[in-house]
Amino acid sequence: MMLILATANKDKGKEISSILGVLPDIRLRLLSDYPHITLPPETGLTYRENAEIKATTVAKAAGEWALGDDSGLEIAALNGEPGLYSARYAGENVSYADNRKKVLDLLKNIPDEKRQARFICTIVISDPDGNVAGVAEGLCEGKIALVETGEGGFGYDPIFYLPQYGKTFSELTQDEKNRVSHRGNALRATIAILKKR
Asked: Which residues of 80-145 form beta strands (DSSP E)?
């Protein structure tokens, strides 16, 4: 079974591949292998809608199975922001560092005990005709650190702190992160879906 990862984010593609790559009957392909396919704007009002837009668009364009992922960071003290706009919280075409700086600036007067946050990931699998064949969701609870820490990961990882580990996502190994992360949890549920196909 061929499965295209419907994401233009190379870091996300690498992370998904590190988990799904263990499936012997799945051949993963990246969106970059299909230069004629362009992802549409993320106009959905939920993570699921955005993931579905990506998965079904790529599946129909390529005539192959596709996996769409949408995820976000929700911070309690910011009323759930950045949420759906996590990738562009500081504006369009910004860096990961710009987004992290905006979050830390907004929380600069918020004490440690009120910095609860969670990551959410929703994955949609589409068949080659563009029909949704499965949906999975994963969560990871944590808090926003006072400062950036660690060199690994991407996105908000240097400021997403896991109290049970005493580390940020960036300080975990890839395997450790995959075991506890929102995307890891969603992908493990996805594996169960794929095994039924």
From this structure: 116-126, 132-144
In order of their start, the domains of the chain are 2-195 (3.90.950.10)
pLDDT of the chain, 197 residues: tens digit per residue: 999 999 999 999 999 999 998 888 999 999 999 999 999 999 999 999 999 999 999 999 999 999 999 999 999 999 999 999 999 999 999 999 999 999 999 999 999 999 999 999 999 999 999 999 999 999 999 999 999 999 999 999 999 999 999 999 999 999 999 999 999 999 999 999 898 87
Q: Which residues are known catalytic residues?
A: 70
How far apart, in whole angstroms, are the C-alpha atoms of residue 28 and residue 167? 31
Peptide bond into 82 cis (omega under 30): yes
